From TrEMBL:
Its cofactor is Mg(2+). Belongs to the class-II aminoacyl-tRNA synthetase family. Phe-tRNA synthetase alpha subunit type 1 subfamily. It comes from Planktomarina temperata RCA23. One of its GO terms (biological process) is phenylalanyl-tRNA aminoacylation. One of its GO terms (cellular component) is cytoplasm. The gene is pheS. This is Phenylalanine--tRNA ligase alpha subunit. Pfam families: Phe_tRNA-synt_N, tRNA-synt_2d.
Amino acid sequence: LREKYLALISAAADEAALEELRVQAVGKKGEISLQMRSLGKMSPEERQVAGPALNALKDEVNSALTARKFSMADAALEERLKSEWLDVTLPGRQRPVGTIHPISQVWEEVTAIFADMGFSVAEGPQIETDWYNFDALNMPGHHPARAEMDTFYTHRAEGDDRPPHVLRTHTSPVQIRSMEKMGAPMRVICPGRVYRADYDQTHTPMFHQVEGLALDTDISMANLKWCLEEFVKAFFEVDDVELRFRASHFPFTEPSAEVDIRCSWADGQLKVGEGDDWLEILGSGMVHPKVLAAGGIDASKYQGFAFGMGIDRIAMLKYGIPDLRAFFDSDLRWLRHYGFAA
Ligand code: PHE
């Protein structure tokens, strides 16, 4: 019996087989238990020999069962450790690192340069009322400039005859909002997204502008010129620039000027500050008295300059990018080609 059970136990394949063996040997009706029950029918002499022998056998089988059970658990753990083995000497996996989009970079650079000149930053909503986007900027009801702006209008429910909201067509409405909030004197720049229904190599329906506004009791075009020169030098990292102020017209400035910078194109490389080409970068002028009034500013005491510059446009110039649309394609290959992504 002893040899039989010890051999079976050490050959058992799993815990279920062990349990079966336990029942078969030392369970209530197990082979060893039955023999122990028959001790009663033996003579005292026989019992004295068989009793301790059977008890010892029972103990031995029980501890063999327990030992085998532990060794099975150990083996299982060994297996698991083998399969979950971790090679701490492997080199780490490279994960791509995100980068700042070129438009965001330029946005931040422009903000920083004007901050150095004492301009604070203001922002306004991208969905505007037509009061802020047009009327307050001296473009009443049927002003032709409204039609020229390729405006996106929001839809109003039938019977709702309030004027529709618009996606702002420029950052100039933030001029009015800033006047209302801060009064005069003040210096702000307002970077942000603007929208016009237009699409070609140099136009996308969403683009970016930065508005500048300076109000005080003694401000002239000369201040505007100085600020813009300082900005262009800092932004394009050149010591000298030449700006050209071309007389123009905007309903919200009088006089108005569009500003070009002297540059050259050679081998697709743009050089700012030299050459015979001129590139337009912004619209500007002295804030129209009606606009000051709409913003609640006393036009007999304060005057100021304003400008609106295309952020995307100066980004294209700085990095020599011919197609504006590529900025918004999210094509990693393009971003890498221009060094904007790792
Ligand atoms: N808002 C004008 C535009 O989008 C630019 C501009 C701003 C012109 C401020 C003059 C003064 O074209």
